[in-house]
Amino acid sequence: MKVATANQMRSIDKYCIENIGIPGIVLMENAALKVVENIDKYDSFTIVAGTGNNGGDGLAIARHLIVKNKKANIYLIGTPEKMSKDCKINYNILLNMNVKINTINQGEDLKSLKESVSTKQVTVDSIFGTGLSGEVRGIYSDVISIINKYSSYTVSVDIPSGLECDTGKVLGISVKADKTVTFQLNKKGFLNPESKKYTGKVKVESIGIPNFVVEKFI
Ligand SMILES: NC(=O)C1=CN([C@@H]2O[C@H](COP(=O)(O)OP(=O)(O)OC[C@H]3O[C@@H](n4cnc5c(N)ncnc54)[C@H](O)[C@@H]3O)[C@@H](O)[C@H]2O)[C@@H](O)CC1
Ligand SMILES: [K+]
């Protein structure tokens, strides 16, 4: 089975967007729908989103769960100003749907997150994906501790947040997922036996990237 590094995934995504003309938001929507397919047997969710494209996946996942009349509590770490273009698109759609988005800025907000993670069936981890760089610190670290302590079932989007894509090393702290739905290709870091503790069961899902594009980079 082919495996990809973060840079290879970034190059593949970039080539798709710039040379083939598949917009990033289409890849993001495909990614979100694949995660929803893997979790829609459940009824209640806590979605924890960062402000990069991994967070954008999470916001799109939340939208599809809500449209399916599931209970979905959304927690955003970071400010909308920091959002990537595609994350912002999914954020604005949810605002236009009058969906409540809880923001986590300080300790007080963590109580509400703990309450949701402890009572909903599934926690969706869409904090960081292949864009994680450097140690996880501060409020991000607090959020991951809460997920690891109180979540009964955790699904990580693309990569457990806190795990380094290329090595499978923990950068300070990482989400311990029961299942990781990773996009298009398995990740090199998942070959590290130590990573199993954090990825849980890994499911590789295509997000519509043509094979010839993958073969250009791997
Ligand atoms: N078009 C694409 O590139 C697609 C990407 N996808 C998703 O996008 C992800 C990659 O997205 P990005 O490259 O935006 O990056 P991520 O969303 O993985 O994370 C980057 C964000 O986290 C912040 N960050 C990074 N390291 C940090 C640290 N140590 N402490 C605090 N904040 C930190 C960055 O400032 C940035 O806001 C993939 O894992 C996948 O989930 C999918 O939507 C498929 C399409
Ligand atoms: K993640």
From TrEMBL:
One protein family per Pfam: YjeF_N
Key words, A-Z: Isomerase, Metal-binding, NAD, NADP, Nucleotide-binding, Potassium
Cited SUPFAM superfamilies: YjeF N-terminal domain-like
Cofactors, names only: K(+)
EC numbers on record: 5.1.99.6
Residues annotated as transmembrane: none
Binding site for (6S)-NADPHX: N53, N54, G55, G56, D57, G129, T130, G131, L132, S133, G134, E135, Y140, D158
Keyword Cell membrane assigned: no
GO molecular function terms attached to this record: metal ion binding; NAD(P)HX epimerase activity; nucleotide binding
Bound cofactor: record note: Binds 1 potassium ion per subunit.
InterPro entries in UniProt: YjeF_N_dom, YjeF_N_dom_sf
Every YjeF N-terminal domain range: 9-215
Matching Gene3D superfamilies: YjeF N-terminal domain
Homology family: Belongs to the NnrE/AIBP family.
Cross-referenced NCBIfam families: yjeF_nterm
Biological role stated in the UniProt entry: Catalyzes the epimerization of the S- and R-forms of NAD(P)HX, a damaged form of NAD(P)H that is a result of enzymatic or heat-dependent hydration. This is a prerequisite for the S-specific NAD(P)H-hydrate dehydratase to allow the repair of both epimers of NAD(P)HX.
Protein name: NAD(P)H-hydrate epimerase
Species in which this protein is naturally found: Thermohalobacter berrensis
